[in-house]
Design goal:
single chain
Length: 388
C-alpha cells in the first residue's frame, strides 16, 4: 500500500479524474455552444439524450466542486510547506492568484466558461481566514454553503409570491453567442468571449449560487488539509467511509426533493431560489460520494494502478484545462472545424474520450522529463520571481 505522503498522489489522480469529467461535459456542451444537429437518426437522438442525462447526473456541478475542494487543499499544502521554512505565504498566494487571473483571461479568449478568473478572485477568502481556528473556518464554510443570498430571495418571494418572474439575465447573453461562435473569424469569437461571454458566465455563476458554493468548498478543502484527510491511514479510511455513508444518505432525499419541488411549490418566484439551494446541496453531497469512493478505491492495490492513470493529468491540470479550451474551441467553433453542426452527445462523447486519452498520453510523456506542466512551470517561476 502506498504510504508516501510527501506528495499526495491520490490528490493528483482525483484532480485528473475531475479534469476528464469536465472535459467530457465540455465536449457534450460544444464548449458552451449548445446546438442539436437536426439530421441525426431517431435512435441516435434517443441515445444522445441518455448519454447527456447520465453524464450530467454523474458530473455536472460535481467535477468543478472537486476542483474547488482541491484548490483549498492545495493552498493549505503550499502554505504549510512555506511555514515549515519559516516563511509567510499569504502575500505570495495573493500574487499567485493574480497570475491565475491572467491565465484565466488568456483561457477566456478561447472559452468563455473559464473558472480560473473566478477562483482567482474568490481565492482571496483563503488568505482572509487562514489564521482562524478550524471551528471558525468550518462555521464560515457552513454559512456559505447554506446559500444565504438565495434565502434572502426566498423570503422576499414569500412576501410577494405573485410578482411575475423574469428570465435569468444570463440567458439573454448566452443567446447572443449565435452572433459570433458560428462565425469563421477567430478575432470576432475572442472579442465575443471576453465581453458578452464573460458577462453571461459571471451572471450564470451568480444566479446559480456558485460563488458561495465555491468559497465554501475552498474552506473545506483547507480544513481537509489541516486534518490530513487525504493521507493514507486506517483512521482516514474510517472517516471517508463515514463521509460516504452520510453523503449518500443526504443525496437521495435532496435529489428526490429537487425532482418533486415543482409539484409542491407553485410560485415560480419561490421555486427558483429553493431549486438553487437544493441543487447546490445535492451536488456537494454527490461530489463527496465521488471523492470518498475515489479515496477508498485508490488505497486498494487492485484499483490504485488503474486510477493512477489520471495522475499525470492532475499534476498538470492548469495546462490541460487551458489546452482543452484551445483545442475544444477549434474543434467545435466556427473559426475551426465547426463540429457543433454535426455532433450530438454520442459523437461528442467519443471525441471527448479520444481527446482525454491524447491529453493523458501527452501528460504522461511530459511529466517523465519535467517536474511541472508547461503552464505550471510558468506559474511557479512567476510566483517566486521576486523571492528574496
Amino acid at each position: 500500500m502506498n504510504t508516501d505522503i510527501s506528495r499526495l498522489h491520490v490528490v493528483d489522480a482525483l484532480r485528473g479524474f475531475a479534469l476528464v469529467a469536465i472535459l467530457l461535459l465540455h465536449n457534450l456542451e460544444h464548449f458552451d455552444f449548445y446546438y442539436l444537429p437536426e439530421n441525426l437518426p431517431a435512435w441516435m437522438k434517443t441515445l444522445d439524450t441518455g448519454i447527456w442525462d447520465t453524464l450530467f447526473f454523474l458530473f455536472a456541478g460535481k467535477s468543478y466542486a472537486i476542483f474547488a475542494l482541491l484548490f483549498g487543499l492545495t493552498f493549505f499544502i503550499q502554505s504549510s510547506n512555506q511555514q515549515k521554512k519559516g516563511k509567510e505565504f499569504r502575500g505570495r498566494f495573493v500574487w499567485r492568484l493574480f497570475l491565475l487571473l491572467l491565465f484565466g483571461l488568456f483561457n477566456s479568449v478561447f472559452f468563455q466558461g473559464d473558472i480560473l478568473e473566478i477562483y482567482a478572485v474568490i481565492g482571496v477568502v483563503l488568505v482572509l481566514v487562514s489564521k482562524f481556528s478550524d471551528k471558525t473556518v468550518f462555521l464560515i464554510a457552513m454559512v456559505l454553503m447554506l446559500q444565504p443570498l438565495e434565502w434572502v430571495h426566498f423570503f422576499q418571494a414569500l412576501e410577494n409570491p405573485g410578482i411575475q418572474l423574469k428570465d435569468p439575465l444570463s440567458w439573454s447573453y448566452f443567446g447572443k453567442m449565435v452572433a459570433y461562435i458560428p462565425e469563421s473569424s477567430f478575432i470576432q469569437t475572442a472579442a465575443g468571449n471576453l465581453t458578452n461571454g464573460k458577462t453571461a458566465v459571471m451572471l450564470w455563476n451568480y444566479e446559480n449560487g456558485r460563488f458561495f458554493q465555491t468559497a465554501s468548498l475552498f474552506l473545506l478543502g483547507m480544513l481537509a488539509g489541516r486534518r490530513s484527510l487525504f493521507a493514507s491511514s486506517l483512521a482516514n479510511k474510517s472517516i471517508w467511509t463515514k463521509i460516504l455513508g452520510i453523503a449518500a444518505l443526504a443525496f437521495i432525499p435532496l435529489f428526490i426533493i429537487k425532482l418533486r419541488l415543482p409539484d409542491f411549490v407553485g410560485a415560480a418566484t419561490v421555486l427558483r431560489p429553493l431549486d438553487t439551494i437544493i441543487t447546490s446541496w445535492a451536488n456537494i453531497a454527490f461530489m463527496l460520494v465521488l471523492v470518498s469512493v475515489f479515496y477508498l478505491l485508490f488505497f486498494n492495490k487492485t484499483f490504485q494502478k488503474k486510477l493512477n492513470v489520471f495522475s499525470p493529468l492532475g499534476r498538470m491540470s492548469l495546462s490541460n484545462y487551458v489546452f482543452q479550451s484551445i483545442i475544444g474551441s477549434f474543434l467545435y467553433y466556427g473559426f475551426g472545424l465547426a463540429l457543433y453542426q454535426y455532433t450530438g452527445a454520442t459523437y461528442s462523447l467519443l471525441i471527448g474520450i479520444v481527446f482525454a486519452v491524447l491529453l493523458g498520453s501527452f501528460s504522461s510523456w511530459w511529466m517523465k522529463g519535467h517536474k511541472h506542466g508547461p503552464l505550471e512551470t510558468l506559474w511557479h517561476k512567476a510566483t517566486w520571481a521576486w523571492s528574496k
